[in-house]
Design brief:
alpha+beta; L-amino peptidase D-ALA esterase/amidase
Amino acid sequence: MRLLFALVVSLLTALPASAGEAPRARDLGVPFNGVPGPLNAITDVAGVTVGQTTLIEDLADGRAVRTGVTAVLPRGGDTLQRPVFGAWFALNGNGEVTGTTWIEESGQLEGPLMLTNTHSVGVVRDATIAWRIRQGGPDASGYYWSLPVVAETWDGHLNDINGFHVKPEHVDAALAGASGGPVAEGNVGGGTGMVCYEFKCGIGTASRIVEVLGETYTVGVLVQANYGLRDELVIAGVPVGRRLREHRIYSEPDPNAAGTGSIIVVVATDAPLLPHQLKRVARRPALGVGRLGSIAHNGSGDIFVAFSTADGSLGRSDRLLTHHSLPNDVLDPLFGAAVEAVEEAVVNALVAARDMVGDQGRYAKAMPHEELIEVIARPEH
């Protein structure tokens, strides 16, 4: 029954919500720089697919399940056979992303990138290895070998995180349901129980289209946002968090709130970049969250992974490989796209999220849409 419940919720959250049900930040008139792709999502990068399993269940003794799994497959169904160039960067390292040592060493991301809650990293990692084994024969060495990339943020405010409710079948459902097209945001997948800037938050995505040397490229971003204090929040250059309090939409800050939390950012692009260039791209989300007011608190795990789908020759070991890349001198548009997309993705997560009551009756209120528009539009006195 629990598996059936998880699968049903997974299928539901894979469907795009109508504009009336889940407006995005641009639908509310929040201004952003840059030109988004058709979906304004990480799936604007051709071949990238996303799958999500959302777990919402009320248990005995006031306990509640508010968690899940999000899977990003850089090459969709070909992800296991065709790695991508990749890199990672930690702005503040109070968090976990497995497999990063091999990304650093090899310059490649091999397999999917998984997001979940802090105490489910182990089961998601093991389940991803088991999934990989079921997909086909061993590698060229004759052995199954996998170092999955699994990232986490802490959802223990709303989720019974020590109940270990994420199971292998939930990982399988996220991977099996991965698809292109619109990506569900807010209280879904790994972001189900997440809170940022003391508002309900979760999964968010955005993209940018840029031109470099006469060619058009896409930069797509997906975030799992769970960080920051309300008074820090800045949207479109406006101190939204502070203004909401000043205008008594919210009263004094929560004395129990802390900067402890994390944000995971996945940056995808179809621009031809080598690993050292992707390392440079992977640093740029720091500027995106900085625009939103983040200071990367001591207790926060602000960790970013970037990959490029441009090179289709990776994975071959039977011939000399030749790689192409853009010159370093022309990368600024891609840097800017990553910054802009991260900023918008977090706001999309805030806008898409809904009020949630969770474990032991604890509560997270969503960003109020009308008030957000009001404080952004109101001139500073």
